[in-house]
Amino acid sequence: MAISKKSSKPKKKSPKYRIKKNDTVYVLSGKDRGASGKVLEVNPEKDRVTVEGINIVKRHRKESQQSGGGGITEMPAPIHISNLVVVCPHCKSRMRPVKKAIEKTSEGKTRKYNVRACRNCSEQLDTM
Predict the structure, then answer these.
(1) 92 within 8 A of 69, measured Cβ to Cβ
(2) Residue range 10-64, pLDDT digits in tens
(3) What backbone phi and psi angles, to 5 degrees, belong to 9?
(4) pTM (2 decimals)?
(5) Which end of the chain, N or C, is more open, meaning fewer C-beta atoms within 10 Å of its C-beta?
């Protein structure tokens, strides 16, 4: 009698990226090279980021009862994360953020947090 084993694959951890939602990013390569915009969505499974006003594509929509009229709509398509770099909101420089450890005290307890910081001006990018 054969015993069947369940093939339990370990769940793949999603990678951590330096780019987060609501960051301002600069496009390094592609048809929109040199443009910058605000991050709308990050998809870590596919290594892609949707940026406002970048990589605009046209979609031909069929007329339906729910959405009303059809036609050609323009929408931002995802762009690969390797083609983007973060723009510091304080000094407006394009850089890769560094990790910075800060301590925050509340109710007598001190906790350490790792936040992203600018390489040039050392200002904190994340809010706590």
Answers:
(1) no
(2) 766 767 788 999 999 999 999 999 999 999 999 988 999 999 999 999 999 888 8
(3) -80, 140
(4) 0.78
(5) N
Across the beta sheet with 48-51, the strand order is 79-80, 48-51, 36-43, 24-27, 84-87, 94-95
Considering only residues 6 and 81, tell me which one the structure prediction assigns the higher pLDDT. Answer: 81
Q: Residue range 70-88: average pLDDT? A: 93
Q: By the 8 A CB rule, do 85 and 26 touch?
A: yes
Cβ neighbors of 55 (< 8 A, separation 6 or more) are 30, 31, 32, 76, 77, 78, 79
**Which domains can be identified in the chain, with CATH numbers?**
16-87 (2.30.30.30), 95-128 (no CATH)
First to last CA, the chain: 58
